[in-house]
Amino acid sequence: MSDTSTPVRAWTRWQDWAEVVLGLVAVLSPLWLDTTNTVMWTMIVLGALIALDGLFSLAMPGVVYGEYVQVVLGVLLFISPWVMGFTDMTGAMWSSFIIGALTLVVGLAALPAANTAHRGMAGQH
């Protein structure tokens, strides 16, 4: 029998804070990277979605699908150099690879905590 009397605390999970930071780095990266208009907007849009998902997960720690959204956004950022055609822009390409991979890894690391929080909230309707 598990202890579900401990309330789930919002704004405390490190994985979600990491997601917000990674999203902000992606949003701001066109400031220091050579980009085209397409690359700039790819980084800004995906980065903003990553940061917003992190904020949502921080505010609602028992909602598990936010972590799955994070994983998908990490994959999208990782593959964006191929999909959007900027593999020849080394800085932007590597930024997308690294930020996307870290977003994916942090999202996968957050899944057990989100599942635990979700189970803990099951009886609190």
Can you describe what's shown?
With about 120 residues, this protein is mostly helical. Helices cover about 70% and strands about 0% of the residues. The protein has helices at about 15-30, 35-60, 65-85, 90-120. Helix 1 (about 15-30) runs antiparallel to helix 2 (about 35-60).
User: What is the tally of helical segments?
Assistant: 4
Principal-axis shape equals elongated
The major pleated sheet works out as: none
Order of helices and strands: HHHH
Task: Look at the helices and sheets and give the structural class.
Answer: mainly alpha
Low-confidence stretches: 1-6
What percent of the residues sit in helical stretches (DSSP H or I)? over 70%
Instruction: Give the overall pLDDT as a whole number.
Output: 88
> Rg, please?
16 Å
The first-to-last residue Cα distance is 20 Å
Annotation, overall tally of beta strands: 0
Fraction of residues in β-strands: under 5%
Descriptive key words:
125 residues; mainly alpha; 71% helix; disordered N terminus
Summed up, what is this model?
The protein is an all-alpha fold and 125 residues long. Helix content is 71%, strand content 0%.
